[in-house]
Amino acid sequence: MNLRICSLFLLFLIIHSADAQTPDWAKNLGRDGRYPELLYVTGFGMAKLDNAGNRAACLESAMDGAKKNLIEKIRVRIEATSKSEKMEANEKFASYFNCAVQSSSNLEVEGLQSASYFDDGDDIGYGWVYVKRDKLIGLNRKKAEELRQSINTHLAAGKRYLNDHQRTPALDEYLACYPLFRKMEEAQAIVSSAETEMSGALQELTTAKKTDEVNMNEVQQSVDQLLQRPIASVDDIAWGMAYMLKSQITAQHGSTMVVPFSFQDTKLGSPFSRYFKQALEGQLVELAKWVIVQQPKEFNPKTRGLLKEYAEAAGAEFVLNGTYWELPEGMKLQAVLRKVSDGTIIASTEQIVSKSVVRAAGFDVRPQNFKEAFADQKDFAVDEVIDGGLSVEVWTNHGTENILYTNGERMEVFVRVNMPCYVRLIYHLADRKRSLLLDNYFMDAGKSNLAYKIPHEFECSAPFGAEVLQAIARTEKFDPLETQEVDGYQILTGDLPKILASTRGMKLSKQNVMQSETRIAVMTMEK
């Protein structure tokens, strides 16, 4: 009997010891041979135990980082597809795909499985999420088809009401299609991102667009017919959008932050987008009776949900943002209203108006130096790095999206990583000079998941236009870059492809080196 008890106790110790062993995905920082990237989409995160010693909070932070890492992989894939040559040749096609590109941080990824592990010796929590690619594709194809069926149901109801001369319920049915279109586009984007071959992703999108374009055109034409209000000015555009958004909200609407619309997929604003923001806010207050709150001037988030905290700092329950596109048939403006707490799409609308109406307002619709900024974006997209575990975030005191500074305003820059690494920050100016703000700055385990404010502040001055703040993190030191000092700043020599090759090249040659990169667009204006 004693021998049996001892044997059972020994067996318990062996099992307990095996359970306590570091899992491969934690040991290898997000890599596990049982879950190859060809078959799975994975995300990895880690967090250092804080001074309060709260293990649950540490593991929650690590899991939050893992989910964000997985979504970042999807974002890079979506943008790579949207910037492919085939899509660039057709702006209308790219605009169809744009909602998911712009809102990828809010994507809802279903079917995820997760695991966590806490290392008692190093006081580090690890999080890991994963999903099979074919499962992800299947779930989102099904979701897209269900949304497509819902759209068809609303279209049929709208036609019946219209035939019975019931204009108000007909308009309600057609307007209900807009948020469904946005959700369907997001599901379709996830499907394309899970495809292992770019050709497969493009085919998926081509098929979806051909299927949905007819329904979208029918909705737009029916709404225009039912509104019966000619669009002769930018204020008319704002009125139409405010009316359509108001009509989709049945319950009492909370405070809303309106973000300046971006020009196409650049994530950059313009003098027009700044003017239109004011016009739209005015109509939302006057027509819809919404409470509008303004973006905060200062911003220092505590979690990875940068945009969410940015809106919460403004006191907003909802965020309204959008894009506008130059198409052959006119200017297409698209708006999406989301709930801040969970990113859910609440309402959406879009209009295609004559370009002459927009131009008559007298504001440039394109960002300054757009041609140069667009060329840079194409260079950035080549061999973009997104690693399995290392995460880097960067933001300014004006936030992370649709950032605008005017002459004389001061910019502060913050960076955060999720594990010990070296950080490099490069600021790409409107005149295409590139300033090395921070180089080989080591952030140890004590600084992981904490915001670091770089010691310099920057004053907005000419030349104005589209600029980019680029952050790169690596687990080994960076190779030095050639610079020359100009007015106290280290200005990089060489063109952008050469700089990117120098910064990203080492990652390709050393398999054990982890590297990650992120960028935010900044718009500077005279006033």
Describe the structure.
This protein is of the alpha+beta class. It folds into 3 domains: 2-132, Thiol Ester Dehydrase, Chain A; 233-365, Rossmann fold (3-Layer(aba) Sandwich); 370-525, Immunoglobulin-like (Sandwich). The chain contains 15 helices and 21 strands. It has helices at 2-20, 24-27, 55-82, 85-88, 91-102, 133-163, 167-175, 177-194, 198-227, 234-248, 271-286, 306-313, 355-359, 370-381, 496-509; strands at 40-48, 113-119, 124-132, 256-258, 262-263, 292-293, 318-327, 330-339, 345-353, 392-396, 403-406, 410-411, 413-417, 421-428, 434-443, 452-453, 458-459, 465-474, 483-486, 489-492, 515-525. α10 (234-248) packs across α11. The chain is globular and about 70 Å long.
Q: Total number of β-strand segments?
A: 21
From the spread of the alpha carbons, the general shape counts as globular
Mean pLDDT: 82
The total number of structural domains is: 3
Question: What is the straight-line distance between the termini?
Answer: 87 Å
What is the fold-level CATH name, i.e. the topology of the largest domain? Immunoglobulin-like
How many distinct helices?
15
User: Poorly predicted ranges (pLDDT <50, ≥5 residues)?
Assistant: 1-19, 85-89
Helicity level: 40-55%
What is the correct CATH architecture of the largest domain? Sandwich
CATH class of the largest domain: Mainly Beta
Biggest sheet features: 6 strands, mixed
Gyration radius (Cα, Å) is 25 Å
- Beta-strand portion reads 15-25%
Q: In terms of structural class, how would the helical and strand content be classed?
A: alpha+beta
